[in-house]
Amino acid sequence: MNNIIVHVPVGAQQHVVTAAGRPYSASPGNPISVPAEDAMILGGWGWILGARGNPMATEGSSANRPTAPVVNDRHLDYDCGRQIFWDGATWRDPITGAAV
């Protein structure tokens, strides 16, 4: 299962919430990593999925990369030790452009 990085928006009424029985607490500027199904609940409450306009930011092993990514999706890959992005055909290192 992938985790998704979520941000609480400035001015959000709910900084401490419980989604699917799991409690979360965050403040603006301090993103947290949550299971994908919880991220969808938090997103429905106005929390922001991903970062800086990226459609989705996930994290996990190389084996847990999203199976149906969209262009510019990000994945913090523990096996590579870096955040990578999907270019529409290949996961790439954002600095070198190398396929990973």
Write a brief structural summary.
The chain is mainly beta. The chain has one helix at about 35-45; strands at about 5, 15-20, 20-25, 30-35, 50, 55-60, 75, 80-85, 90.
- Low-confidence stretches are none
Task: Count every helix, treating DSSP H or I runs of 4 or more residues as helices.
Answer: 1
The percent range for helix content is under 10%
Amount of beta strand: 25-35%
What would you call the structural class?
mainly beta
Order of helices and strands: EEEEHEEEEE
Number of strands: 9
Distance between the termini: 20 Å
- The 3D shape can be described as elongated
Main sheet record: 7 strands, mixed
Total domain count: 2
Radius of gyration: 14 Å
User: Please, what is the average pLDDT?
Assistant: 84
Layout of secondary structure:
Elements: E1 3-7, E2 16-19, E3 22-25, E4 32-35, H1 36-44, E5 48-49, E6 57-60, E7 74-77, E8 82-86, E9 91-92
Parallel strand pairs: 6-7
Antiparallel strand pairs: 1-4, 1-5, 1-6, 2-3, 7-8, 8-9
Describe the structure.
This is DUF2510 domain-containing protein. This protein has one helix and nine strands, in the order ββββαβββββ. With 100 residues, it is mostly beta strands. The protein folds into two domains: 47 residues, no CATH class; 36 residues, no CATH class. A hairpin with a 2-residue loop joins strand 2 and strand 3. The two termini are 20 Å apart.
